[in-house]
Write a structure and sequence with these properties.
Radius of gyration of chain B: 18 Å
CATH topology of chain B: Rossmann fold
Distance between the termini of chain B: 33 Å
Number of domains of chain A: 4
Oligomer: heterodimer
Distance between the termini of chain A: 67 Å
Helix content of chain B: 25-40%
CATH superfamily of chain B: P-loop containing nucleotide triphosphate hydrolases
Radius of gyration of chain A: 32 Å
Strand content of chain A: 25-35%
Strand content of chain B: 15-25%
């Protein structure tokens, strides 16, 4: 219905533009909430959730009880819910979206669904309907080869998935970690030192499992389950994939040392689990003939390990590498990435031979305001006061005019900056700019943006 | 402290060399960070010795950038891609400014070699510096501090120096806004910005530095150099004549003025 018609029928109609991003975020929050029923929750964008409740339904009094619980909660959130239970994810999805009438059993219900439930493109669906095949039941009676020949392989595959003849795996929102090793204890473990020893054994086991797959871990998470039900997780990250159990244990020791509140065994741990949620390919290392890795590689590895250790101790954002960004706005031209996830380097702007450095060594972000005396209003600065010191400008070069990124802003806002490289009487070089041209702003301010070597 | 005679200095050098050769791991004689300025390098026996600690004091709080850039350029001049570890406290960016990678690239250094570590306080800075100097494979470790640093006493300095010697790394202590004090450093420098040689239309030219050697364990101190960084050849050079003819500005003292933060 066009908006004009709707407004004609209902006078005080509230109109809100469609916001797909907010919808997706809300669906994700609902999916988070559904983790109470099962850890295997998959998103079925834009408006569906698929829950694998195998082995979890009895906690809510069976399937009916679970559905009632979901309905109650969604009702309280003001959500309209259509739900269905089926043996496969595709069947449940199709039933929830397209089932019109109740049916005696699942197979019959699936057979009564319209062909639109296959989720094919509109043209293929129309072709099926024109051929007189209106329900899944009509289709399922025919040989799959004939369907594939006439309506495409996609139609045949969708039909087989819907009928449960082909697997339809879920892509859960929270993927189970690829490698998990754990140890359970008959008697709770009362000492932290003993727990650390067990963690070391688990790390060695995980290293073997990683080696078998030809992988290395980037992220390790140890969880200590206390006998009174409390679980405490600590995690470490490495910049390079590793399966060196000693290195992992050094990082865990570093993390445990830096904890504000130490891990308290309380009445004892009854399980310790080590998960490796993030793994990456790592080939077998080759030693050189005379023993030991190559010298430069060993040096780089030592620095990487130091970066991991310091990042574990200080926080990952405190150990950084600088990478270039493709923009001419000075303060955005460098990006500081945590060293554990820095992207590969990209080239920096090339310099002209014979030119002096045009960018400062130290940059102030935000720029610091200064007081400037200039000969003519839009001329170069003659004297400026910064940090309560007056600097007399002896030499200058400029202006280098840097405009705002007008293509990013709808209102075309942002002031142009006129940069000057100046040298004061003491020989120190500064990077000053006037924020705004005189026809953009009546009284533009001056700032110092950096200091040259 | 000035040496009274050159023979005494030579003796000292010999003793130092003997002491180094007797060091257990023998990491003391691992080469030099050279500046490329022949006189400068020759005067301090080849450059800044690797495996040692060297201190750079900014002559004034406003000379912080010159001191930092001089230390960084010495380290980044070295061939290869060995990383440069730069440790500073989290508030250093507010005081001295962020280390600006495009500016390092403009000086001819490779910013991708930089690994920046920011700590919450000077105490943690010292702990991390101890780990960093013990990690071989870096081109240099720069530890930047602002103001007095009481945690860095002679014991802590000695520990750092031993770590650098054992791992064969070179530690460049960047001391900003503070006065030189006794320490175990091999060399101690005061760095100040120097007027550059003007380009066409009186534009500021290549970076200029004034260096004062105020302490050297291996020989006489007290020398002063005026140097300019030549980016295209990646060397420091003696300042050109026109720069040296500029009058030294009044009000230039070795005593740092405290900058308003």
């Amino acid at each position: 219905m066009p908006l004009a018609d709707a407004r004609a029928q209902i006078g005080d109609l509230a109109v809100v533009p469609h916001d797909p991003v907010a919808d997706a975020a809300w669906l994700d929050r609902l999916a988070q909430g559904c983790a109470r029923y099962t850890p295997l929750v998959a998103l079925d964008a834009p408006d569906g959730l698929i829950l694998d409740i195998a082995g979890a339904a009895h906690l809510f009094g069976g399937e009916a009880g679970l559905v009632a619980d979901v309905e109650g909660r969604m009702d309280r959130l003001g959500m309209t819910l259509r739900s269905a239970l089926a043996g496969t994810a595709d069947a449940a999805r199709a039933l929830a979206r397209y089932q019109a009438l109740p049916a005696p059993d699942e197979a019959a219900a699936v057979r009564r669904l319209p062909v639109a439930a296959l989720g094919l493109e509109a043209e293929a669906t129309t072709a099926l309907v024109r051929a007189g095949l209106k329900t899944i039941g009509d289709l399922s009676g025919r040989p799959v080869a004939a369907i594939a020949a006439r309506f495409g392989a996609e139609a045949a595959n969708a039909l087989r998935r819907l009928l449960g003849d082909a697997p339809s795996p879920l892509d859960p929102r929270i993927r189970p970690p690829p490698i998990v090793v754990e140890r359970r204890f008959a008697e709770p473990l009362g000492s932290s030192a003993h727990a650390a020893a067990v963690l070391a054994e688990l790390a060695a086991e995980a290293a073997v499992a990683l080696g078998e797959r030809g992988k290395g871990g980037r992220h390790f998470r140890a969880t200590f389950f206390r006998s009174d039900g409390l679980a405490r997780s600590i995690a470490i990250e490495t910049g390079q994939p590793t399966r060196d159990a000693d290195l992992v244990m050094r990082l865990f020791a570093e993390r445990i040392d830096s904890l504000r509140d130490p891990i308290d065994p309380g009445f004892g741990f009854d399980m310790i689990r080590l998960a490796v949620p993030r793994i990456e390919a790592l080939g077998a290392g080759q030693l050189r003939l005379e023993g030991g890795a190559a010298n430069t590689a060993r040096g780089a590895a030592a620095v990487d390990e130091l970066a991991d250790r310091l990042a574990t101790r200080l926080g990952r954002g405190r150990v950084r590498r600088l990478r270039s960004a493709d923009t001419h706005i000075p303060e955005q031209a460098q990006l500081a990435f945590p060293a554990v996830e820095a992207p590969p380097p990209t080239p920096w702007t090339a310099t002209e031979p014979g030119e002096p450095p045009l960018r400062p060594f130290h940059l102030f972000d935000p720029p610091q305001p200064i007081e400037v005396i200039a000969e003519v209003p839009d001329g170069p600065p003659q004297r400026f006061r910064w940090r309560r010191t007056l600097h007399a400008v002896r030499r200058f070069e400029g202006p280098e005019r840097i405009a705002a990124e007008w293509w990013r802003r709808r209102d075309n806002a942002g002031l142009t900056r006129d940069y000057y490289r100046v040298e004061d009487a003491q020989g120190r070089r500064y990077w000053l700019f006037r924020h705004g041209l005189y026809d953009e702003k009546p009284d533009p301010r001056w700032y110092i943006h950096g200091v040259f070597a | 402290m000035r040496e009274s005679s050159s023979s005494l200095a030579a003796l000292r050098q010999r003793v130092a060399r003997l002491a180094d050769s007797g060091a257990p791991s023998g990491g003391g004689d691992g080469g030099w960070l050279a500046s490329g300025h022949a006189d400068f390098d020759a005067a301090i026996g080849g450059g800044l010795a690797i495996g040692k600690t060297h201190e750079f004091f900014a002559a004034d709080a406003l000379d912080a950038t010159s001191a930092a850039a001089f230390a960084a350029l010495l380290a980044l001049r070295t061939p290869g891609a060995a990383p440069l570890l730069w440790l500073r406290t989290a508030d250093a960016a507010r005081r001295a400014g962020h280390i600006y990678a495009p500016g390092i690239a403009e000086l001819g250094g490779d910013p991708d070699r930089l690994l920046l570590v920011e700590t919450a306080d000077p105490k943690m800075l010292l702990a991390c510096a101890n780990d960093a100097v013990r990690c071989g494979g870096s081109a240099a470790v720069i530890v930047e501090s602002w103001g007095a640093w009481p945690a860095l006493d002679l014991t802590a300095g000695r520990r750092l120096a031993l770590g650098a010697r054992d791992a064969g790394t070179v530690l460049l202590m960047l001391r900003l806004n503070t006065l030189p004090a006794p320490s175990v450093a091999e060399t101690r420098w005061t760095v100040a910005a120097a007027p550059s040689t003007a380009l066409e239309a009186d534009a500021p030219g290549a970076p200029g530095f004034t260096l004062d050697l105020i302490r050297w364990r291996g020989g006489p101190a007290g020398a002063r150099w005026q140097m300019e960084w030549n980016r295209d050849e990646q060397v420091f050079r003696g300042a050109a004549l026109s720069g040296a003819l500029l009058p030294v500005a009044p009000g230039r003292t070795a005593v740092p003025r405290r900058a308003a933060a």
